[in-house]
Amino acid sequence: MLGYQFKFMNMDGNRDGTNSVSDADVLKDFKVTPTQMSMEMHMAMLMYAPSDDLTLMAMLPYKRLGMDHITRTGVRFRTVSDGIGDLELSGLYTFFRREFDQHRLVLNAGLSVPTGSIEEKDFLANPAKGKLKLPYPMQLGSGTVDLRPGITYLGQLENWAWTVEASGTIRLGRNNNSYSLGDRLHLSAGGNWRATDWLSPFIRFDSDIWGNIDGADPDLDPTLVPTADPGRRGGARVDVLFGINLYVDEGLLNGHRLAIQGGLPVYQNLDGPQLETDWQFSIGWQWIFQG
Hints:
Oligomer: single chain
Distance between the termini: 10 Å
CATH topology: Porin
């Protein structure tokens, strides 16, 4: 399978715990506050199945990040970073099947390789100082080798299918800048209905819990802006996502699939002040073929 996915996420305004906080409140403790952030990601995917039970996968993202700020003196500025993110390699193994594949359990053993930069710089409020190191959310990678274990249950009937998934990200040591991003737990549950041979709408609930940063980049001042404080990066969020899957099973486009989804958070609890997520959108294409 060859695949491509475009994802866009928008973050607007700050949150501390479950409460929104104003820019003025953040500026009481910091000289600068972020006000908005956008994340664009282009993901290239390659999958190969040497058997019915084993699938090997490689994914490489290209990211473009932008963040708007305001200072205590009212100066507004924007920082941008873009480039290759971390390469992810994984294997999916179906270790349990029952009743003509109506119930399956799949193990996911993944590894994230630190191909993304953690040295991104840009001009801040005072361009005369030149380009300075950007805070943690504006870096393109983790800088560490990360384990990505997971397990997925898949069930299906004639026109219905559902999944339940649990996965994690475990950081192995600290990177060259003396820190490691927080470990992450991802839980997901969803279902889809096959309305026609080519159309299947779906709904999914995603839950993420992530920790604060261990260590600190010596080039960042945690008193300047909250995004540079390693103790203000953890949190939890629950998203609800709606979308459609489109299939083509014949003709020149046989094996092509298109997935479109969008969603927004229904719960956020952040170790803030920290930018809160407003909404997200993605569109993905897959071409499944036999070599």
